[in-house]
């Protein structure tokens, strides 16, 4: 309004108002919306739609900005998600940006190989690859970042971008035969990564994993399987109502060394912070137990320890988020000689 009515030269009757970096088709859509209250989003090309979103943001048309963002969230695919995320980052559209990140997390390998990934701004790129839930292999991430860096000549950008690679997650062979020949990382940086990997516990490494909020991932639908325990099929069937001593429960014997237990292998490395399990509750017995997680079945971290408490029935357990492949495995070290049972 200051431009048109504030005494500037554009406010003169015969003056032309120049709209920089504005696509005519997008501005035509905006005018149509201003005069009719309607805009056909589904028929617009993607690049026009993103320009249209930019105009709505520039001119403070919040309802239009929200509606366009909501529409874009429904049409995300591997070919456009990086471009949409760049725009969402530019205009600080948190809901749209979160939707893009969630999509990229679930399709990380395909996103890394897309042309759109190479067009990401540095800020948007680092936001994506620094996420623990960006669940691609570190080798794939490294190679994609190499392609991105080769398109740019700024050495400062290269150093900052390549620092996002979690080198200790790569094997020694990958570091020597893939990372070293690239010439994008200094020998000292590479040696530091090798030293860290050789001296660290496996579960202390900064793993990446799939994040599926508010959903039970210890199910056959997500590729989970019970690898240790008796009556394995009962644990993941989802039926928490129909069970007795003969069926409907998984169980394991109580052993003196406390190593017997029920073990679940997830379909893929995943980020978890909550376990809900049902201890046998059809009589008055109580149980003590602990829960451990692992990535490789060799190095285990105890995330819940109720070995000194008497517990029964439903257990809702929360702990610091962890990436694991071997799902929380309850080990009952009970206070009775009988065989304990549990169900997720």
UniProtKB/TrEMBL annotation:
One GO CC term on file: cytoplasm
InterPro entries per record: BACK, BTB/POZ_dom, BTB_POZ_domain_cont_9, BTBD9_BACK-like_dom, Galactose-bd-like_sf, SKP1/BTB/POZ_sf
GO biological process, one term: adult locomotory behavior
Domain BTB: 1-43
Pfam assignment, any one: BTB
PANTHER family reported in the protein's UniProt record: BTB/POZ DOMAIN-CONTAINING PROTEIN 9, BTB_POZ DOMAIN-CONTAINING PROTEIN 9
Protein name: BTB (POZ) domain containing 9
Taxonomy, superkingdom: Eukaryota
């Amino acid at each position: 309004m200051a431009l048109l009515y504030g005494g500037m030269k554009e406010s003169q009757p015969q003056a032309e108002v120049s709209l920089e970096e504005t696509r005519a088709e997008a501005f035509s859509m905006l005018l149509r919306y201003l005069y009719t209250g309607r805009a056909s989003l589904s028929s617009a090309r993607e690049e026009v739609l993103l320009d249209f979103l930019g105009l709505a943001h520039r001119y403070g048309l919040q309802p239009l900005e929200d509606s366009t963002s909501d529409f874009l969230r429904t049409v995300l695919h591997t070919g456009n998600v990086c471009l949409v995320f760049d725009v969402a980052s530019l205009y600080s559209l948190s809901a749209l940006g979160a939707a893009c990140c969630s999509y990229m997390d679930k399709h990380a390998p395909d996103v890394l190989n897309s042309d759109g990934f190479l067009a990401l701004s540095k800020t948007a790129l680092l936001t994506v690859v620094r996420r623990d839930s960006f669940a691609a292999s570190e080798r794939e991430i490294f190679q994609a970042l190499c392609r991105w860096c080769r398109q740019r000549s700024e050495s400062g950008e290269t150093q900052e971008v390549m620092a996002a690679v979690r080198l200790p997650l790569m094997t020694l062979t990958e570091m020597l035969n893939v990372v070293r020949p690239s010439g994008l990382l200094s020998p000292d940086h590479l040696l530091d990564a090798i030293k860290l990997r050789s001296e660290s516990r496996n579960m202390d490494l900064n793993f990446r994993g799939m994040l599926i909020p508010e959903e039970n991932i210890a199910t056959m639908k997500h590729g989970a399987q019970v690898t240790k325990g008796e009556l394995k099929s009962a644990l993941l069937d989802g039926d928490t109502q129909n069970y007795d001593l003969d069926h409907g429960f998984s169980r394991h014997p109580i052993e003196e060394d406390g190593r017997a237990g029920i073990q679940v292998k997830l379909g893929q490395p995943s980020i978890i912070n909550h376990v809900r399990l049902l201890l046998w509750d059809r009589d008055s017995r109580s149980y003590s137990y602990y829960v451990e997680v692992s990535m490789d079945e060799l190095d285990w971290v105890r995330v819940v320890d109720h070995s000194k408490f008497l517990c029964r029935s439903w257990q809702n357990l929360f702990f610091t988020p962890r990436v694991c492949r071997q799902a929380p495995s309850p080990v009952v070290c009970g206070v009775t000689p009988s065989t304990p049972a549990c169900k997720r």
